[in-house]
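=== Structure Prediction Worksheet ===
Name of assembly: unnamed complex
Input type: mixed (protein and possibly other molecules)
Chain count: three
Listed entries:
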Amino acid sequence: MTSSLLYAMAGAALCGIGLFGLLRLSHLLRKLLAFNIMGSGVFLIMVALPQHQSGPDPVPQALVLTGIVVAIAATALAVVLIRRYYHLSGMTSLEGEAGSREGGPL
Amino acid sequence: MTLEEWMPLFALMISLVASLVIFALPEKGYVRRTSVNLGAALLKLVVVVVMVWGVFHGVNYGVSFTMVPGVTFVLKADALSMLFAGLSAVLWLLTTIYAVGYLEDSPNRRRFFGFFSLCVASTMGIALAGNLFTFFLFYEMLTLSTYPLVVHRGTAKALRAGRTYLIYTLTGGAVLLFAIAWLHSMAGDLPFRDGGHFVGADPDIHGSLILIFILLMAGLGVKAALFPLHGWLPQAMVAPAPVSALLHAVAVVKAGAFGIVRVVYDIYGVEASSALGLLEPLSWLAAFTILYASTRALWQADLKRRLAFSTISQVSYIILGIALVGPLAAIGGLVHLLHQGIMKITLFFCAGNYAETLGIHRIDEMDGAGQRMPGTSLAFTIGAFGMIGAPPLAGFITKWVMGSGALAVDMDWVILVLVGSSLLNAAYFLPIVHRLWFREVKGSWPEERHWGRLETSPWLLWPPLLTAVATVVVGVLASLPFSPLSWAELIVLRESSP
Amino acid sequence: MTLWLMAGLLFTPLAWAVLTLLTDFVWGRRVTWVGILVQVVVSLGLWLTVAQNGGFYYDLGGWGAPLGIELRVDGLAVTFVLLTAAVASACGLHAGVYIDQHKSWHRYFWPLFWFLWSGLNAVWLGGDLFNLYVGLELISLSAVGLVALGGKANALRASIRYLLAALLGSLAYLLGVALIYGQFGTLSIAGVVLWLDNHSAPAGPGLALALMITGLALKTALFPLHRWLPPAHGIAKSPVSALLSALVVKASFYIAARLWLAFGESLGSLAAAQLVGLLGSAAVVWGSWLACKQVQLKQVVAYSSVAQIGYLFLLFPLTYSVSEPISLQAQQGITLQVISHALAKAAMFLAVGNLILSVGSNRVDALAGVSRFLPFSLFSFGLAGVSLMSLPPSGGFAAKWLLLQASLGSGQWWWALVLLAGGLLSAAYLFRIYRASFAENPETDRFYHPSKSLEVIPMVLAVMALALGFVSEQVLSVMALPFEEEGAP
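=== Predicted Assembly ===
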């Protein structure tokens, strides 16, 4: 088992854990953390998979950098929104509103 | 673009532009709106007359362009289009006059007349359509523009009737679209052509052709009020009388019948249709509708509902005439398109007069109305006798020609249907006539309004009188050229010699 | 010349976004007017250039792929660029008057608006998978911000839900991109197509494509992943809802369509195609059914979006292993559907905004009597509805006709039934609203008149949706233009 394949499988595992958390946890900050874990998993797969015989491939590294930046921006936005939401409603999760026809995040 | 290309577009544009202008004018601009209405109606009449003359002399009016890749928008004026176009142009003018009088003091007149003009534009488009795609375009436009007129009053009853109307017509439209799309994917873009396209068609596609025909009849039959798709028509009588008069006695139901004529003559072709065995069942269905609707008319206590069932019955005459494979019967069916239009609109105008002037809606309230409103009642009587088929009125011409046509193709049972339906017509019209003239007034009228010396407003009185006169003239002078009968003969002549 | 056009197209929105960060609402509005003018002119210029000369590839800054940004300017891309220009300017102009200028945080509307526009342009013109990801993220984050501008708790809820759904979708897409890069060694769409032409398809990338399509479907709110859309589009301010329904959901669909058209034959399967079509049909039925039951006006329109999005996914079964002309018909139909839905839905949301402003209530049954006071906006709504119901003469009808032909021609006649049933169902929920407006028992006797400019804008959009029915031939001929020079980067 090559090291890159090991990394890729670790990334897949992180993805799975993150996805589970994103869907099943109800506290918004925990959902956000799950999302970040899932993101890390994806980045890991992205770096690990395309390893070629001629050494490290710069393209995925550049892409992952971009991805990390995007993830930071998204996380920052999410944190702001969650804070504001808590401030306005006192709630930390999306469920629990009486008579709401909306389901989970999906 | 040449003049021949402009004319059909122009005929359409007149009412379309009129509609936009009316929507733009303020609600209170009565005089301006009435002048736009009447001016546009007169202009359209002039254009149609010019085109009738041209078509008679063999001028080819038409325009086409590709709207969607693979299919063209075609306007074409042939003899059959001009029959329908002429009817709608003349009756639009009269109905506009009538509507102006009828809706005096009503709210929302701008909305009414705006959509009214759109309806007329759609009807003109249906008349001038050169292929099924274009036909369908205007057919659905007609549905959309008639809905606001049906629900004009805004009462719960009107809204319910509107809902029923939509369910029927939109579903019919969807079925029609499916059939047209299927035919198109099978056979390409087929223009309307004398003699049809499927003479001697490949036996492989017979099954599909039969199925498509049934779907087409279902889609068109909704508007043509063919049994069992007629349910919307009696309910739509809740609309104001001008709407019932023009639209549900003339434009909408005739659009459906017209479509059936086009499909049988100019898409399939009469020979192909009868070879596929499609016309006999159609004729039975039409005959059944005639008798069924006439029978139900007997039980209606509301005047407009009785007239509605009479319409359902009469429109099927047209379909019956088409379905009998013979030129004479076809002439009878086609000429009835016009005759029935004139007679029925007379009756509806009169019904509207009774409602507006005396507050009468039911037949048992009509005792002695002949003395109070002689002009209207005279028009009503003429229309009623025309429906029954008394000579020398328009209705008689139709039944005579159709009867002769039926005998010519050995379909003797049709005579029984014609006679039976005439008897039924007499049974439900003569009592009304009797009440009008030969009974005394029972107490006072439900809600009477006075207009000085005349029995009712001149806007309301003249249209039915004019159409009643037309009923007589069209029958008496049927043998002259440019009478409806001669025009129908011309159509059939051109149809059978492509 | 093209250099200026391309630069203008991509950098003007970004520059304007930065500019409007510095201003308040009123000044931001004025700056935006200038920007809108520039964008419309540039978009039109680009469309005309491509219409005359054909499409081309453009390397931003002269750096080629894979590290440079390569843009693909073909007929379809410029059509959508032009569409965006039309709809976004309308929404921007409407928002300038509609949105309350006194709330201080509303000044962030303009930067978010401009970031959204730049993201949209990036997606339409994107040629490689990763830049499409960046564009998508830009769009999602701006859209979430726009939804949250409502300020109240329910707007925040809706925006958080939207954000989580969008992020999940993006991650799924990104994972797919990673797998594709791992397999093919290139990120550009044309490059992958070239690789697939020369080798047979391996087993793995089917998963990648499925992941990407799933992620994009989540962002487009395809049934059953649609739950986030009605709150977001229903609670946001009307110009925002218009932008979201008209353009934002189309961006992810556009990418999914590009991917499918490029890779679908090789990497997809018949079952997958039919499944997507089935989900689209379910969306049509389910969305329309729910729309009929909504009490609030904007929710009806939002659920209508769910239903209409279902039609778009009929592209998948209708372009998988069918003949070339049928596939073209299906593509043309879907393109027209996207354009007419964008125009009609934007017109609808803007008109509804006017109606709600006038009547003072969001409920459907509060519309009674409005036809006398605000007939113009009601008429815009009505006209937009004609296109939405795909009744003639409108762009929606032209789209439906082409899709009917494609389904009947390819033997997949069941989609024809879905199309027709969908039309009837949309008539059901739209006529419910028309009915309410015809009713003659007004409870509110005081109607507020919005300014004329607010009323004109939806009318213009609605008329464009109808006019599309007549000029569809010309529009589609540009869409299908080939490239003037082929070649992989």
